[in-house]
Fold these 4 entries.
Entry 1:
Amino acid sequence: MSHRVRVNPIACEAHGMCAELLPERITLDEWGYPIVDLTPIEDWELEHARRAARACPTFALLVARERRARP
Amino acid sequence: MSGAPSTVSELPLKRIPPHGAPVLPRLLAGVHSVGAMTLTEHLSVHGPMSPVYGGRRRRDRAHAAMLMDEIERSGLLGRGGAAFPTATKLRAVAAGRGRAVVVANGAEGEPASLKDRTLLEMTPHLVLDGAVIAAEAVGADELIVCACETAGISVQSVERAIEERAAHPISVRSPQIHLRAVPGHYVAGQESALVNYLGGGPAKPMSTPPLPFEQGIGRRPTLIDNVETLAHVALIARHGALWFRQLGTPTQPGSALVTLSGPVADPGVYEIEHGASLSSLIDAAGGATMGLRGALLGGYAGAWIGREWLAGVALSGEHLAAHGASLGAGVVLLLSDRACPVAETARVARWMAGQSVRQCGPCINGLDSLARTLEQIAAGSAEAGATRRIEHLASLTARRGACGHPDGAVNLILSALDAFDADFAEHARHGACDRCACSPELPLPDREVSHQRSRGAVV
Amino acid sequence: MTVPVAAAGSSSYWYLTRSTGAVALLLLSFALALGVVDVQRWSTPRWPRFVVDSLHRNVALLALVFLVLHILTSILDSFAPIAPIDAVVPFVGSYRPFWLGLGAVAFDLIVAVILASLLRARMGYSAWRAIHWTTYASWPIALLHGFGTGSDASKTWLQVLSAICMTMVLAMVLARVIADWPENIRVRGAALGGTGAFSLLLLLWLPSGPLGPEWARRSGTPASLLPHSHTNTAKSRR
């Protein structure tokens, strides 16, 4: 079961905590908004990803389980 | 502004001269130069509407399945800009949980597009037929027609058409049709923005998933189709998929409406078959009145084609894709050789930045920075490496918003750098050119983004 | 005339309620200050954003702990007649009803803020934000409660502590208001005006209020608890 990290761009207010807590996947652009690596994350990253998602003040960071492709 | 059509009623409507059997017009068959076709006229030109049963019983669902198969066989692609296969969307909505809602999208926020308001004004019943048939196909019991609130004539036309139908047997078993006037800013017609507005919120895109076809208005599966797409649906239901495919190309069958503006004798809305050449369209419009520098295809989220390619361009998805362009919502904007493409691009970029509904940081900041850099290049005050800066900003701006607005603006800007690289290089070296001083050509109306919530949910 | 200092022993709850109240005020002030640092996104490599944010949340929770202790000990204390209901329903008590009631108001607001933060995920961001804004109201209410109900207004330690809290909060609120001036200028202007007016009125009131004569009587202490040196009906603290 793989997971991905993504940002809801409407909710995001550039607080920047996600980039601090998951620097392997998230960097900040010149305006402070997250640039996210959207490829599936490794298993060991999942706990960090969830912590980063909890830390986001606006719940903009989401950890999504991979959806099965529709037939 | 030369060549820019202002109000629909000033435009003469023309057709591409048919070769051999009269195959065009289809959508524009029987339209008057002013005023809508009445229901009687509509039925006499197009024939009786195909039957709808409006129910959920097995027989009705079998009929709906037949409709969907026919639309799938026709290969109809959406005419709102995305060219998404209509049958696929219909099936997805029909498979959703809950009773579906159908929205006929005539919001038309693209300034250089007039085809949707033209359809609604001139032949509203064709659109309404298509909407009712689509509702039948997906099992919807609610139907909402959206017209642009600044296109008052088309709003009135749809109102009258709805009244006409209500008094006519055609409306038996059809769902009730609601009309909503939606704000005119660029992004208001985006699917989730429309769902937001029709649900009682402002006309601003929402975060997805879920997409409207799964959960749209009132969390119900919502079919949002461009009014032209629905007009085609109405004709396919009457005449069949084979008839539809007699025009156009194998991958992009049928006819399409395009809005041609710029230095031509008769700018306006034309019906073409997919694959027709740009030259034949210009000829049908009375020919160019000036030399041409290039053409903007698809609108302000589209792409530029430089003058060297114009002669050979055919208006179909696959041919244009080779030029990095698409027809989009059927917009063809011609630029004269008196205009400065660098200055025009800077103006469009600034306008697109202003049309951001300002929900997402990368869109707000990216489009503003892009516009500023382009303005500097146009004025000759840009720093060295400004073109590289634009490419960098483009990568930071595209695909990082909640909707496709920043992507479209980036697409336009990058295509301008490509098509007019010589002009951009000149500006970087020597600053503003003598054509910059000419009056601007591309129509960029004053459209304030409306943040107001709508008066209330319809559904 | 000064109010006699409470004696030790059976009145240890009274000491506790005063001390936990003072600590709660200090922690609430600190939480507010950290809230401003958080929302202004001030950070350094040593104090990254997530640390500031966690610190803000944790200091607020710690303040709540001390607040609960403050309330419990005031109820348990036998000197002042404070009932459990006085902790949440304002102005119904018999001991300095108005000033105690302010404490109940502040407590209610703070509980609402903390509950909203715990239930954040279910709430929707705008609703959460609206409730969180009430912290700017609960702080001055708590401060006035402290001045009104406390018996240590004349003590240097409390005056110094209060001065520290007031300075810290005033500085942070001003920083918050001035930072993005003139964005949202109406709200910012109102906040500036309100802060200025409150500060001014407070400084004008203190000398004639809690720092003034016979504050215990004027603030609504039940007569039976007031010291009357010439009667033997006074309940004295031993």
Note: The radius of gyration of chain C is 19 Å.
Entry 2:
Amino acid sequence: MFPWSPEFKWDAYHVAFFGALYSVLATVAGTLAFAAWRAWRDARAGRAAAIAWHGDFEEMPRSARPCRHQLTGEAPERTCENGFDCRHCSAHGHFLALRQAAGAVEPAGHFGFDLPLDRLYHRGHTWVRPEPDGTLTVGLDDMARRLVGRPERVELPAPGDRLLVNGPAGRLRTRGREVRVLSPVDGKLLGVSGAGAAFTLRVDPGATADLRHLLSGDEVRAWGLRELERLQRALGSSALGTALADGGELVEDLGSVLPGDRYDAVLGDMLLEP
Amino acid sequence: MDERLLPRGRRRAPFGRFLLWLLPWTALLAVGLYAAYLCLALGLNQTNMDNRFAFGLWIYLDLTVIALGAGAFFTGFLLYVMKKRALSAVVNSAVVIGFICYSGAVSILAIDVGQPLRAWFTFWHPNVHSMLTEVTFCLTCYLTVLAIEYLPLVLRNRQLKRRPSMLLFEFELHKVMAVFALVGTFLSFFHQGSLGGLYGVLQGRPFAYRESLAAWPSTFFLFILSAAAVGPSFVLATTWIVQKVSGRTLVKQEVFDLLARVSGSLLLVYVLAKSVDTLVWINHTSFALGVHPASYYAFAPFGTWALFAEIVLLGLVPALLLALPRTRRNPRVLVPAAFLACAGVATNRFVMTVQTLALPTLAFDRFLSYAPSWQETASFLAVVAYGVILYSISFRYLNLFPQERELAAAPEA
């Protein structure tokens, strides 16, 4: 007996009442089931890492998401909307052409931490160095190394695992705080070497390595300066006094001079895990 | 101790101090649960309600929290349907408050029906002509929707979101949230309206009875309008309280401004509609039922001051203060105005529930007074304690205010 009520009658009141009720129930249950089905489909398609990054990126304040062309002046005020993945940005080519027309700026400088220009940088403070054999070496940059200090635990993917740009490339536990490291490249992990924060990953990018999203040359200087500003803002006025503003050296183990909750926030801010 | 569960970058009190904060509320909850047990085990003779005063403190406060909880559906409606993006700063908190209000109201109703084990009767043998049946169905459906809306907040917890299954479900759930916001709006319109209609159809009680507009008494529409109007004010007021208690700045001033503007504008429309309704009731409806309207106000303490307080002092005044840009931008005016608006809807629900039942309707009737028993009071205070506890836990471990972190960094930038 529709709709399973002993008193149901086929009159306008009952039809309208039960029609509305079952429509609502069907809509709620159907939408819930639809979301569950899509989640299951995402899991099967291996989209968890991309979705995790999407969520993290959405949570980051605008000040943490400047477009690389804002840093170098081609697009003032422009904020990245592509998860720092310029490979899928329609405007990247246009701005790159503008920069080339203006001529390259001489890269130089030491910002209180090292950013050697023989490699490429990811916004999550990892570097990538293409090797002569076509593989890529990936590691934490100097700022990240000083941020994490001497981690108690370093969880890295196992050789053979697949890395994805902006997917997880490791998880560090330092002074009781955890932070994940973003992978700067796509590829298969060949091996891990080094210890603690000085680990490096050897990655096989496959046939061709698309590294357009990584920072290089004069961009690195502009980015390094912006990251220093961000770090100073994240640290606040109480922790390190005026050392950074004065152009001093970033301390070796930042966690040793920060209160726990502040350190946790700084780790998340700088390594892009809000 | 619980640092790994705390959202990153949000400063929270030490765990021990947090437990101390919860302690008195837990004690209050325990006393209330005992009172609820007495009501369930020994019966409704534990209350001071009787056949005449069948609605008491519980129903009055249920109606009030349901009206105030309308902030959840209305904020969701403004954000997801009307695309008022600024409200994303408070929608999480509004959902938690809505969930607390509705789950608290349903819990109290479970005690109030006297035979909670037979609560399923209303679903299996519904009286489709009854406003109460509509309320029951809409309340349970909407509580389910609120639980679904609450779920993504929980799944975004720092530790839970590290599990891919939780993360993916939260992500996909978030994408269909507009559907739940729309369903919530539909359900809220009907149960808020039906709660008002419940009184408006009482022809035997001329104080509450109202003439019909398109099959529904005018109170149906007034309840919807008043709930939608004060919902944003309640979100504003609770956000301000949380800011004061936690010592953090949680949202930007422009969010308060938007909430106040929406609340003030709707409240003005409500006050206008309520005034017209009252004039029609005084000049026509009441006389048509053979009662002089002055007689409603002949019994202390319900003088005409109650009518003045409800419509002018707690209606028109906060409406103007919230609607006018100059006054709402003054924090010393904004927050008291929001509290006045909330007090206005509480007064309206009190008048409709308690004054309606207190007034005599037949020649041999007399004016009755009612005071709740300690069991009724304690049961309801348990709901307040439950709300504080759940909100405190949510505030500590979930990202209720997405702007909090940015605002905490701002003064030092």
Note: Chain B has one domain: 3-404.
Entry 3:
Amino acid sequence: MKSDTIINTAEQNNSLNHTDELIPIEKEKVVLVGNPNVGKSCVFNYLSGMYVDVSNFPGTTISITKCEYKNRLVYDTPGIYGVSSFNDEEKVAKEIILSADRIINVVNALHLERDLFLTLQLIDMGKKVSVLLNFSDELKRRKIKIDSDKLSELLGVEVIETSAVNKTGLDKLEFAMDNAKVGNQQLDLHFMLQQLVEKNVSQSEALLILEGDDETAEKNNLPLGTPDDRERIYVSRRNRVNEIVAEVEYEDSKKGEIFNLLGRLSLNPLTGIPILAVMLFIVYLFIGDFVSQQIVDFTENTIGRDLFEYNVKSFVGNYSPVDINVEIFDEEENLVSSKNFSFSEGMDSQVELKNEFKTFSTQDGAVSDFNFTNPIVRLFFGEFGVITMTTTYLLFLLLPLVLSFYFVMAMLEDSGYLPRLATMLDRSLNKIGLNGRAVIPIMLGFGCVTMANITTRILGTEREKSIVTAILQFVIPCSAQLAVITVLLSRAGSLPLIIFITVISSVLIILSTTLNKMLPGESSPLLIDLPIMRFPRMDNVLKKTYFRAIGFMKEASFWFFIGALGVGLMEITGLLQIWQNSLAPLTTSWLKLPKEAANAFVMGMVRRDFGAAGLFDLQLTTMQITVAIITITLFVPCIASFVVMLKERGWKEGITVWIGTWFTAFFIGGLVAQIII
Amino acid sequence: MHLIFSENALKQIVKRIRMGNSTLDKVKRGKSVTIVTLPAGKMKAQFIRLGISEGDTIFCSERLPGGTIVLKKNRQEIAVGYDLAKKIIVFLQR
């Protein structure tokens, strides 16, 4: 009877109405909850197959995945150590948990002591819970025994042994959902909560209020529990967990203790830095060499330029006046011959010449350059054509790169390496006013700066967020830009690479030390859980990669088209010429680059890699390439990251950083140019 | 004046008293400590969630150059930054 009342009030206080708009209310909401790295997403993947609905949680950018499973709605939540509002993940998870009808709590059997804290908190909330004891196959290997019947008896809920990796026990998921029940709560706490429940608050919210969650207290207009309340509840819950673990877990021998050599070695700088170097080298071989050279060469040139653009352009050329210049290159990229075809009324009106062009331009090594006379046609199908260039860049240059970057990031995340890297680099990052955690947004920045700007939220203080945001906009090149830079640098040789790295790291050090000195306040210290290192689970990695790449393409495509349209319009209206001329003194005498390099800076404001890619077509000397790359790396963030930065950090800070990048890029770039050119 | 303890013995006693209560940043790799006081507030809550509360005896599995401490309790490992470690009062186990 009691549990019914509690559940009903929980429904009245349902705070997730916004995500439910399209769904009939009768459907039960089952929520998967667990600590980070417990295999929660494996369980979710098992339930969902490929049919999942990914959406951003309102007001945040944390994505929520949900799916339908046999007339129930199943929600995945971010990994958390407890329910409260310590960070964004927790806030999101808390909202979903509060609105849940049933909870499947996924527990890592190897980390019972840590994970049962959350389990007991969920039970104390009065929720209907079932526990999945995941990784139970690993227990045998590590010579640990867990008496799951006893555990079930002590918790008062169903405990099901599973192994999400080889999918054993997952067939009992439905049983777990059907039989989720209110567990054994701590009696004195329960009675304390009932006093609040009488004031028409759900038991779950009552617990959070007593534990000092200000958001929940504010929502219900009730006074917050004191810090002492929270501590008392937390300590007694911790003691209960320890007692339960002592009763249900037996370790056969100490020899079975986890031997985590790689994990240990990657912590200590002595061995950890070589491991980091090897890892980065492998990543470079994979992305810098294999994907950005071989794969992209094939997709961009063979598919994009020779197949897609050639056919689209010649199709349009049938009906529109066009001037085509065809150049034939041999295998060493030397020009063998070239020919000019002029169709003053479109190719269809000059069939003989058209056939000649077709034969000439379909030889091996032929590159055709279409010059449409009509400005509107040029806008869509020309050199910066909104349809031609953008499609090639998006699908045949960016997509393979973005996929490979997200793949690497997901591998690193899933392996448990990142927290160790954070630990190893903690002291070095302390020197620039950050803690080890900051390595995560910075690493992500090499994938996508826009995404990394959002991830700065995991940092403890505003001060740290400001420092990392500035570092990201000033010095970190995103994957797309990095790829273009890699290609340009690999053509240029090793000296430019050394100059590039030296200059960029000097800027990084000067910038971050200055900010650390200038910004008031103190940074937060490191406290991080080190999960056991393991080989990444491929299905998990691939799924993550897929969803993130899709998300990125959705977001990026729009700005690409806008950027191409903008530059195209500037070209046909003559604005591009004016821009080039006005920047010319800066580009030609200060940066010592050809004045067309100014195009790269227009494009660079839209998307950074667009800017870098604009350098491809210019005939630059090795040292000019070096200067151009340095300048474009330090130059303003793309429009998408600019907008996100404004949203995250406010107008004042955002604009300051943006203007700062203009100044730094041209100042440093020019300085280098004056020295090396 | 007659000394009850020899000078050497006195030094030992003072040393022991000093050694008794220390801060976590002083712990050596491979030694154990008993946590006496954790810094109040969210930090303490987070420690308790991760399985470490006042009174627990914990093994220091790694002490990185610079002073970042890695603590181990059963199978749970957590890293504690140097500045945080300085604020945690511990009893060094011999």
Note: Confidence is low (pLDDT under 50) at residues 1-21 of chain A.
Entry 4:
Amino acid sequence: MATLDLINLTKQFGEVVAVNSINLNVGDGEFLCILGPSGCGKSTALRMVGGFEDPSAGDVRIDGQSVITLPANRRPTAMVFQKYTLWPHMRIYDNIAFGLRLRRLSTGEIDRAVQGALQLVGLPTYGKRYPGQLSGGEQQRVALARALVLEPKILLLDEPFSNLDALLRVRLREELRAIQRRVHITTIFVTHDQEEALSLADRIAVMHKGQVEQVDKASNIYASPRTLFVADFIGAMNLLPAICQAGLLQLGAHHLAAPPSLSAGSSVTIAIRPEDLALVAQSDSAPSDTWAGSVLQLMDLGHYRRAIVDVPTLGQLKVYLSKSVMLNEGDSVQLTPMRYLVYHAHEAPLEMQQQAGEGVMVYR
Amino acid sequence: MTPSETAEEQATEATRPKQTSVNLTLRAWLRVLCRESFGLVALLLLIVGILGPISTVFLWAFTERWRYPSLLPTEWGIKYWAQTLSRADIGSALPLSIMLSLVVTGLSALICLPAAYAFARMRFPGRQLLLLSFLVTNAFPRFGLYVSIAIVFFRLDLVGTVPGVILIQLINTLLLMIWIPTSAFQGVDRALEEAALDVGASRLRVFVQITLPMVLPALGAALLLTFVSTFYEAQGALLIGLPNVRTMPVLMYSLINNQVIVQYGAVISLVLWLPSFLLLAFVQRFLRGNAVTAGLGV
Amino acid sequence: MKKNFTRRGQNLSTLLGYLPGYLLVAPPVLLMLLLIFYPAAQSIVRTLFVANEGDGLRSFSLLRYTDFFNNRILLWNLWFTVWVTLLTVAGLFVLCMPLALYLRFSDSRIAAAVQVLSLFPLFVPGIILAFALIRFLGPHGTLDTLLQTIGFTSFRTPYLRPSGIIFALIWEGLPFTILVLTAGLRQVDNALIESARDVGAGDWQIFTRILLPLMQRSVLIAFCLNFIGVFGSYTIPYLLGPAAPQMMGVSMQQTYSEYQDKLGAETQAVITFLCCALIGVLYVRTVTRQRIGERN
């Protein structure tokens, strides 16, 4: 139940800058995911919040007060680690009670707190067991209970589900979300799995090479990724280089309308979501420039189909199609982008849209 | 191990710390300072306590005269080296020791290595029990055991014979030569062998070209350890070997007790010690791994 | 009829399948049985069955043992051995535990040097150690000379004193104990320590409630093997210790060689077995028990 601010937080290991002056503000009760590939600095940033690494520069403030002079055992944060989280020589009850006992609470209070925590994570009868007797998912639930029982101000989770199998991950994700909402605790969740981030977070901070590339709601990040890295990292994306000439973007043998603010001669990258590539029926009322290609691969993914279309001079494009589209591998198709983002230098992308007309099938 | 703490030290020197980081740096630095000053004190004590006696031997070996209370030898020289090495008892003890160590190591390898392979890779009832039974030999106080064996040997007329000494020294080597190779064989990734089988290699070829090279370092270490520990084995050789079989360590007993000239003992100590140096260089890295302690049950 | 045949055939083939394994492990196992368990058993039997005066027949008798316990000198030796062992083992733990902790949590060059130095005694055989220590710690030895030059004149040499034995045995046991303790510490993952810190534990609490319990196995092994090793040692006590009292190893050797009393030496050997028996059982139990965390 507190706010968290990271101010110019930096961590250097010798020559390597693991976290490069990041700024984040997390609101009271918010669930923030730090998402990024391995080595991007997300775990290091989390560990600095928890007190397991000392920052090279910058500040960490909880409820407006700096905490970086506090060692890990005196910070109001609690962490769920990725693995080896429970002490194997203690029963579940003692694992959870450990922190409480350090605070010299009475046996009655401890008992109530532990039972409450076990109830919260759905393992009320597990007190007497040892961690070795629990499955991976159950162990992480106990780790969560152990963190929450101390009523910390900030809950930190470092890829807690990455060692579990896919189905379990989804289930535990939902349970975590429910618990977090119930307890209303400010939470930071670090992961490399974008599906996890997209489904759990109120907001996502995408990190890359020590820097935060974008912080926003999941839907905004998906719709308007601010940098090329985020565009490529979140969801599938077709990235095509192009040059701006005479008001048009020249890509290979094709061209698209250029944003008016773009100067001639600039080289840009165009990003098109697979679902934004529409199939155009073979008819005369087709839009001016359609891209002809042949279907290389077709994958049936349940509620939609994914195609890889080879367009000469452009390369292989990913296209999402609805189930009803009748296509086979080897067929010739015509594509046109309904919406695309233009990335130029390090500026925010410019969004362009085409009007859907007759004969244009758009995946929805 | 936390590389972050030492790297952090370097990093905080590299970047100019901002206002809020100053207190932080101090706290972290104090912690490291306390820890490392303990290390420094320990290091100094270890240097005096461990290198002190050793360097004393070195000094004595190169002394011609050393009168108390001088801190260093009054006269240096290597006169005693020639004298020591030409002694008759050294002349017979040194080759004997080397021969014994080689024979014992060879026999031990012959007996134990196939067994180690069987323990590691074959399944038969009682395997675990038999393997653990070797650890039980650790539970006997060594010299008491030697006395028991000496009495049995006495009745078998093995006392004072070379075979008797070989046998008693062989016992010492069993634990090492079973456990280190066993864990080495167990450590070979089956997937690597299966991949070789998959491309058509015969089982023998797989063993010679895949398995053996991977366990060779551990086996080499075990052999070296066995050789060196047998070379230095003093108690069994004393009990069983005397009066006919006198190995170098046994010689040292009398040199320490009955010899006025210190240099003889010092020179022999250095000569005896040479194989240890080789062992030190080769095995030191290996010792930091888990294979040796695994052999004791850790 | 056919069923019986195949079943018997199966049993036979599985048994034959085990045969190569048994054949390969037979040599060392037999060697161990013949050269360790058989002599030990022999000693126990021979000392418990004493020949009668008259007909020379053996009968069960505790005479050998009562003789031992009635002998004040021998009893003193036993008592001496026990407390030298306890002091040595205690000293080892007091020295090695902080060193092991330091080596686990420090990465500096000092730590690397400490590690190398602490392993050094492993490569110094007992005989040479005895010689070196006599020259170093003995009267007019280098330590004595060193202390004289800085003005410290009241140095009492531990040579031919119990303290000499204890110092030398601690010297000898240092690398092994550190190896075992650091191996045990290494098995405690950093995350387990960090999560304890996370819930508020201080250094001492982490040591007593997390590290020690998880290191239990290696602590027990270090204790047992050091105890048994020191109890049964000979070379160091013989060369560095007093003429009386003697440690059991020295006493046994004297009884055997100089007094030519084979049976007496054997009795003493069995007594050392007995004294170490409980510790030996503890060792075997610790080693065979499943490690913590492998409870599935």
Note: Chain B touches chain A at residues 3-4, 7-8, 10-12, 14-15, 17-18, 20-21, 23-25, 27-28 (CB under 8 Å).
